[in-house]
Amino acid sequence: MHKIGFTRRSMLAASSALPLVGIIGRRSQAAEFSYKFATGQDPTHPINTRGQEAIDRIREASKGRLEMKLFPANQLGSDTDLLSQVRSGGVDFFNLSTSILATLVPAAGIPNTGFAFPDYDAVWKSMDGGLGTYIRAQIAKSGIVTVCKMQDNGFRQITTSTHPIATPDDLKGFKIRVPPAPILTSLFTALGAGPTPINFSELYSALQTKIVEGEENPLAIIATTRLNEVQKYCSMTSHVWDGYWILGNRRAWQALPEDLRGIVTQEFDRSAMDERADVAKLSQSLRQDLTGKGMQFNDVDRNSFRDALRKTSFYRDWRGKFGDEAWKLLEDTSGPLT
What we know:
Layout: H1 8-27, E1 33-38, H2 46-61, E2 66-71, H3 79-88, E3 93-97, H4 98-101, H5 120-127, H6 130-140, E4 144-146, E5 151-160, E6 175-178, H7 182-190, E7 194-197, H8 203-208, E8 214-217, H9 219-224, E9 233-249, H10 250-255, H11 258-292, E10 296-299, H12 302-310, H13 314-322, H14 324-334
Parallel strand pairs: 1-2, 1-3, 6-7, 6-8, 9-10
Antiparallel strand pairs: 3-9, 4-9, 5-8, 5-9
């Protein structure tokens, strides 16, 4: 097992998780199957708290036949590293955002289309329905599998250290960190900003050293990684919704007997629903919490940003890349975009 360079924050997060990993590791010696489950989020994020609950239930339901070790906070590598590892078998399960997965499976990025979803009702109608089914089929073609329902990363908001983003014009020339995700780079380029792809494990230090002026993430990520320490303003743009897939290495997945695969899916499905509820609640409470820590919030007219985007080739270009079938499934809930 190797460890990739940590930021100060991820080192603290990793160290807090080690006792739990050690306990699980000792138990796994008698297991018929012993698998690694990696995530990029801090141990306090609902992805990990609910993920650990699922792991515990899986161990119990399988009568100890299947053990998993949880490795949060990019302990085993950056998101892009881990995507390679889950394909090769270096890790067996990996929680990854749709925006990063799109670098391997382009169709996975269609939920990240700028200003497509107005609210969570539209999101889950789409992702638990036709569009989600379509995306899962495309992921399967890449040699990895999706093992459960989607989890929620949340609607992404823009934070800055220099000035609030109130109108599309405020993005002109603005140097913003984005994940290594083509659709997010394209979105901010279309709106006149200067997007800079940086891995999540390097985000805090990039903001601290002013490599970029700002970034964009859901409130749960902003809070658990304490980005308010290096960012002053948060603009509630909700410009993109982002979700997580739990991906499985195909060989590891197929090695499990059918009954164990059923247990894994059942328990991760349950945790996905719990995690969705957690993130929805956090999205309501964290604004107040972060305000109390000095972060300044402002609301925006999302329609003005969507109208500005319509004046560019953004929607036409991505419709061409995703194809008419996928685009129609998106517009079934988003309404017409082009």
